[in-house]
Design brief:
Length: about 120
């Protein structure tokens, strides 16, 4: 079972930037897709961005133009660069790795956007 470890969350002011990292304990190429989800208080978990094995990227409407998902295959790591952060981006961000019918989740990293 591959483990996913997120890092990079924290407190940032509106308009600021953060880069989240998701380090996998094995090769990320074994997954059909890796992505970032988030869950705000009292809301359902939602997709932020995903990068399938082919390397193209998919973003939610709220993430388009502000967030960038990328991967470093050699480091088995997926990143989420978040710019122009807004208070409504406050949430716990989770890394996800999908392989067929199964998927793995990280423990989450908290992002708080507040002045």
């Amino acid at each position: 079972q591959v483990q996913l470890v997120e890092s990079g969350g924290g407190l940032v002011q509106p308009g600021g930037s953060l880069r989240l990292s998701c380090a996998a304990s094995g090769s990320i190429l074994m997954f059909s897709a890796m992505g970032w989800y988030r869950q705000a208080p009292e809301k359902e978990r939602e997709l932020v961005a995903t990068i399938p094995s082919g390397g193209f990227t998919i973003y939610s409407e709220s993430a388009k133009g502000r967030f960038t998902i990328s991967r470093d295959i050699a480091k088995n790591t997926v990143y989420l660069q978040m710019n122009s952060l807004k208070p409504e981006d406050t949430a716990v961000y989770y890394c996800n790795a999908a392989r067929g019918p199964s998927e793995e989740w990280g423990q989450g990293t908290l992002v708080t956007v507040s002045s």
